[in-house]
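Reopening this one. Same input as before:
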Amino acid sequence: MSGFVVRKQRDTTFVTRPKSLREQPVIVQCADFRCMAYRDANGRWLDYFNGEELKGDVTVIADN
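Same output, byte for byte:
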């Protein structure tokens, strides 16, 4: 988890990650769930909070 900052506050954990200008978060619909995601320089969809690649069809629900 290089570059991530994790801080805990009582029963809540906050994870923040550095943002580049290329990473514009949007809400996407995958097969079984919705999440915030962004496209990397290679055009892959990545989960905004953990950086994992989203597999399968991804549909943009809301953008900025």
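So the earlier flakiness isn't reproducible anymore. For the record, The first strand starts at residue 5 and ends at 9.
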